Amino acid sequence: MTAAILSDPEAGTLPVIDFVAPLPGFPEDLRFVLVQVHEEGLLYALTSLDSEGLRFLVAPPAPFFPDYAPEVDEETLAALGTADPADLLTLLVISAGESAREATANLLAPIVFDQSTRRATQLVLAGSGLPVREPLLVPRA
């Protein structure tokens, strides 16, 4: 995650992320900001600018799932206006549980964000066999 998406020094505000298609179940919400909720950059709130109080807990996959690297198809790259795939940032939607051990990540449908165009979409990896609810923290023996 880079600091560029978290703040805009010239404007003094958080940059708006425009979704090219609404998230399932939220057809009116296309504009969001990404707000850091964990000092070390592990958790963020993807907060709607269109509906007061709507936010999703998201996280970059690397700290939790280092081998997770979803393939982004050409159609998605075009929709995001991606010129350089290195500009893409993947975020996982997190479902909080009663405790940290009960939190899960949606590996089947990551959010893919182009840091240059500030456009995003939720990519559904149909046929991948990836789970919708993968435990975020693996119990240690």
Architecture overview:
The structure is a single chain. The chain has one helix at residues 74-80; strands at 17-19, 31-36, 44-48, 55-59, 88-95, 104-114, 119-122, 134-135. Helix content is 5%, strand content 31%. Mean pLDDT is 87; it is low at 1-12. It has a single domain, classed as BH3618-like (Roll). It is mainly β.
Relevant terms:
globular, BH3618-like, 1 helix, 141 residues, mainly beta, 8 strands
Put the structure in a nutshell:
By secondary structure, this protein is mostly beta strands.
Number of individual domains: 1
Strand content: 25-35%
Total number of beta strands: 8
**Low-confidence spans: pLDDT under 50, at least 5 residues?**
1-12
CATH architecture: Roll
Helical fraction equals: under 10%
Distance between the termini: 30 Å
Q: Tell me the major beta sheet.
A: 7 strands, mixed, barrel
Number of helices: 1
CATH superfamily: BH3618-like
CATH secondary-structure class? Mainly Beta
Write the layout of secondary structure elements.
Elements: E1 17-19, E2 31-36, E3 44-48, E4 55-59, H1 74-80, E5 88-95, E6 104-114, E7 119-122, E8 134-135
Parallel strand pairs: 1-7
Antiparallel strand pairs: 1-2, 2-3, 3-4, 4-5, 5-6, 6-7, 6-8
